[in-house]
Amino acid sequence: MSLNPSEFMKTMENRMLFGDEDKATLKAYAEWGTTVASEMADHFYSYLQRDPEMNAIINEKEGRIERLRATFIEWFHEMFTGIDNWGDTYAQNRWKIGLIHVRIGIGPQHVVPAMATVVREVTKKLQAEGKGEELRIALGKICMIDLSFIEQAYVEVSSDAVLRETGWTAGLFRRLIATGAGTM
Ligand code: HEM
Hints:
With 184 residues, the protein is mostly helical. The protein has nine helices and no strands.
């Protein structure tokens, strides 16, 4: 795979203006994150269950919904701790989450509204509890970085599969995409 998760993480941190102050804020609220994670998981999965297509995916396999609830809570908590201070392990973990979603066939049309749900519900909770604006901003940034990983995994896996199957060069593939976009 051409993407280096650690480099991608650094690029996204720069682009999202995610800095030391955001990291300090998230760490300071790590305990709060643990206390609200289960409630956020409830919002998240009831949102997915209201959409027939997403509901079918999450109920496809026995025990999936329970597994998903547990992994969501872990994922949510990791946004506050950064696992290894948002280093290589964090980047690898987020990349792996991206790949899992691509494998299951979950695309941008599913993931973007799902992440918007997390941001919306967390914002409501913060407002209800009168928490500071800096936490909402820091959480919004890290959610968008995590979202970028899932989205980028989709692009990387799709292009890699086409290149491997056809033997085309990356340059030719980019030209074909540009031409294709011009004809739509
Ligand atoms: C905000 C966006 C999302 C986040 C943060 C998220 C988080 C996660 C995490 C942490 C895992 C576990 C990965 C692992 O096993 O290491 C996972 C797996 C999975 N997610 Fe998501 N997810 C998101 C969106 C979605 C959406 C929109 C769907 C369904 C339409 C979905 C369905 C699944 C499924 C089916 C699995 C695999 C479960 C299994 O059988 O083990 N996810 N997700």
